[in-house]
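Weekly sync notes, structure subgroup
Attendees: PM, AL, DS (notes)

Item 1: joint prediction request from the bench team. They want all two components modeled as one assembly rather than separately. Inputs as received:
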Amino acid sequence: AQTVTQSQPEMSVQEAETVTLSCTYDTSESDYYLFWYKQPPSRQMILVIRQEAYKQQNATENRFSVNFQKAAKSFSLKISDSQLGDAAMYFCAYTRRGANSKLTFGKGITLSVRP
Amino acid sequence: ETGVTQTPRHLVMGMTNKKSLKCEQHLGHNAMYWYKQSAKKPLELMFVYNFKEQTENNSVPSRFSPECPNSSHLFLHLHTLQPEDSALYLCASGSTGTGNTIYFGEGSWLTVV
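Output from the run, pasted for the record:
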């Protein structure tokens, strides 16, 4: 069975600084997707970034980028120039490619941003 | 606005009541999902529907009854719930055409009294 582990329950970053959120996963599949979702206090789950396992290039979305290490099964999220609006719970998630797939989530990490 | 709409946003019900949560997606996806998010637990997948057919029931108690009349609509019928069922219920939709990315609604807060 696939598992996603986020070992840090909380992190804090100074506004305008950079922070990295860690995630590891376990799977026997070779073709899959990894995601980071953000859940602000409104509780809406918002897709932040997506990585396809067969792509070696790390995904980037504006201030958000990932460090995808397939052999190590590691998928960290880097937030640059942190803003107050980045304060939220962040979930790492995994799904294999194909029909009937489902997301497996980590427990999440609460990120606070200090002004 | 993610294209997935859930109603009601908040629901308070007694343990003997029968109520329903509704989810509608406007994204043309073929799969729809119900997730439960409790305060002390990680996100739990409850049900998956693919082209209206249930493909996953994650050992959910029968007091939760899903219904998927078409690929755009998903319901969660609730009856004789327990206080421990109080949680945020998140609906989501996705498709293999979107790289298995799923998009969530805003959630329905359920309180069982």
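Discussion: The radius of gyration of chain A is 14 Å.
Action: AL to compare against the crosslinking data before next sync.
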